[in-house]
Amino acid sequence: MLSSMFCPNCCEKPERLCIFGESPYKDPVTQILTCPKCDTEVPKERVLEAVNAMRFIDRIVAKNEIQQMAKEQAVRFLKGIKDRFCKILPTVNVYMCKVIQLLIPLIDPTDSKTLLSLHLESEECVRFCFPPNHPAVAVHLSSIGLFYLRIGHPHRAELYLEMACDILKFTLGSIHPLTVDKLSVLEQAHREVQEARRIVLNSSISFQIPATPSLTTVGSAEAHGVESVIRGASLKETRREESSKQHADNAAGRESNKENSHKDEITTASSTNDSSRGTIEKEQDLIH
How many helices and strands (H and E) does the chain possess? Predict the structure, then answer.
């Protein structure tokens, strides 16, 4: 796997193929590789291309050519090699890891994003080369955690730093200076995680949904419409009550007039009867 190549025939996520050694997809007689994913034979020319790429990198490392270049030139040269061979060799390939190893010291220490990307690319190769609890794995993981912390991702930093500290406590002990140093960085990550959780909690508590202007306008229009309908209904009801009251007053007035007229008729009749009785009595007295 440390000298593997990408299958040139796979369209998406190409399969990694081991060039040397025995493999189930390698013909023991012809040494032809058949990709188990796309079931296609890999041309010998493509295998030789991958082998030549690894030899080219090995020659540069052996001759210390990078150390003889200026810093900017060396960075450009190594990035060019990495970009060129990353389509042929996977990052688990030890020769690609050597390119990254040469490139990391040349990167500006304040460029945490680039350093994080390079360390993540070489993580698989480091884990493959060393035992799971080797201090070299812990140092690499702690570096990833530190870069995550610097770019503002404390949760991911906490994850990598915890893995690194577990390895160091197991291999070197809790009082080893390297373990103590990584534990202090882990505590810083814990504090930043707690602070991030507190900020998120406070934001969720104070969060309010703002009113949309269109909804507010529609709501106001509807409110005005309802108020107009209510006012109109109240006005009609008031007028109806006043009309009913007026009809009642008119009816009461007519009844009162009828009663007064009836009383007048009774009084007139009574007076007429009294006058008639007086006249009759006078006539009877004259007769007698």
Answer: 8, 2
Task: Report the interhelical angle of 94-103 vs 44-63 (nearest 10°).
Answer: 40
Q: Within 10 Å of residue 14's Cβ, how many Cβ atoms?
A: 18
- Under 8 Å between Cβ of 146 and 158: no
d(CA 165, CA 185): 10
pLDDT of residue 201: 83
Report d(CA 91, CA 79) in Å as an integer.
14
pLDDT band, very low/low/confident/very high, at 161 (cuts 50, 70, 90): very high
Tell me what percent of the chain is helix, strand and coil, each rounded to the nearest 5. Answer: 70, 5, 25
Contact 123, 129 (CB under 8 A): no
d(CA 80, CA 84) in angstroms, rounded, equals 6
Q: Which helix (H) or strand (E) holds 107?
A: none
Q: CA distances (Å), 125 to each of 16, 31, 157, in order?
A: 13, 26, 20
User: Which residue reads 């009816």 in tokens?
Assistant: 251
CA 276 – CA 272 distance, rounded (Å): 6
- Higher-confidence residue: 242 or 62? 62
Output the pTM of the full model: 0.68
| Max CA distance (Å), the chain | 180
Share of the chain above pLDDT 90, in %: 60
Cα 276 from Cα 191, distance rounded (Å): 124
**CB count in 10 Å sphere of residue 169:** 16
Helix (H, G, I), strand (E, B) or coil at 27: coil
Half-sphere exposure of 205 (CA within 13 A, CB side): 6
In this prediction, residue 241 has a pLDDT band, given cuts at 50, 70 and 90, of low
Contacts of 43 (CB under 8 A, 6+ apart): 8
